[in-house]
Amino acid sequence: MEVQIISRKLIKPSVQTPPHLQSLKISFLDQLAPSLYIPSIFFYPNHHHESIKNIDKLEKSLSEILTLFYPLAGRYIEDDLSVNCNDEGVEFLEAKVDGVDLTQVVQQDPNSNLDLLDHLVPCATESETSRLLSIQINKFRCGGLAIGLLYSHKIADMPTISTFINAWAVTFREGGMSDRVPRPRFDCPFLFPQRDLRLNLPPAAPKIQPKIVTKVFVLDKEAIDKLKSKISGGTDSGVKYHPSRLEVVTALVWKALIGSAKTQHGHLRASSLRQIMTLRGKVGMPLPENACGNIYMPFISRFNPNDKSNRLEFSDIASLLRDSKRRAISDCANAVDSDDVLSMVTSSHKELLEELNKGEVDTYKFSSWCSSLQGGVVFTMMFYCREELSSP
């Protein structure tokens, strides 16, 4: 597959950002976010609605929606821990894909095409004042289309970007701004002002360049329903438990990883699994529904082979995940102000760093876009996302 960039431009907000909004300090939650870019791709076959191929309309709707999501068109200033909302623009690339049809990418064995997907998203850069969002429109010879996005995690989490994508999709579909477009809120720097976090967190372990193997596993609805049936039912408290698809798939993968480590080392090893929980709608303090930024905390589930109650059974692994999630939700509900949130989140990050520094504990990190993209999104054919370990 050959991907040729045929145009490159910067899309600016259609209305200039007012002077009083042109400097946005990041919050202490943003300070804790990793310095990396996140790529994602949306695929559209040739039989998809014809309007999606209207590049001019994509550009126009993007420019309009950036008036609401103006920080994404700015540049991050590392030394000042702020975003310069200077309307410099979002990078917008058009590319032509030769040598392969879109169906070959999305319908054949996905594991054989993962390296090809990297060419469908813009490249990350190393500058500390680099762009915060880049978009690449890929046109296939069959008429299909792939839209690749690359965004900086330093100022946005998955719910923030999904709010942006939903808003762009509605604006595109309706031909302009409307009351149905989600309105973002950038209040977090005021709700969670910057702190000197060096006093709160231990130093991270030295980074080791990992050997990465990427695989795709597809579970259909029938398979997921069978997994759910294995752990659905009553709990110790007598409350009926209905696991989500995310919970059962996470339990399945974690169980397999623990079993794989046992095969490799000859014995069961301690294992921890990190997941992410949004603070939206969970903390005890008021928080706007469409609050944007990094508004999450990690929480950890642990498998201890020395604990006789920790068995390597699917239902037991699922219970570990369920219990840790419930504890995290309870902690969030008790956080009623900024200081409570700071204490809770930094404690969670400390716990994560301590786990990563333990040599005899296998640590895994899971993330999910489940429920992030709403039904109104035009971009719905196929979705691909992975973490890109590059500094913004």
Automatic annotation (TrEMBL):
MF-aspect GO terms: acyltransferase activity
Keywords tagged on the record: Acyltransferase, Transferase
One protein family per Pfam: Transferase
InterPro entries reported in the protein's UniProt record: CAT-like_dom_sf
Highest taxon listed in the record's lineage: Eukaryota
Keyword rRNA-binding among UniProt keywords: no
Record family assignment: Belongs to the plant acyltransferase family.
Name of the featured protein: ACETYL-COA-BENZYLALCOHOL ACETYLTRANSFERASE-LIKE
Species per Swiss-Prot/TrEMBL record: Salix purpurea
